[in-house]
Amino acid sequence: METFNSDPKPGRLILPLVLIGMIATTYTFINRITTNNDLDIVETNQQVVEPEETVVAEETTTTSTTTTIPEDIVTYLEEITGEKIQAIELGKKVLETNARWDEKITTYQEAQVEFQEFIDDFSIFVDTFSNPGPPSMSGNLSSNHDELVILVNLIYADTQELLEGLTAPDTGERRSAALDSFNSNLDLFISKIEQTVASATSS
Question: What is the DSSP letter of 10?
Answer without folding.
Answer: G
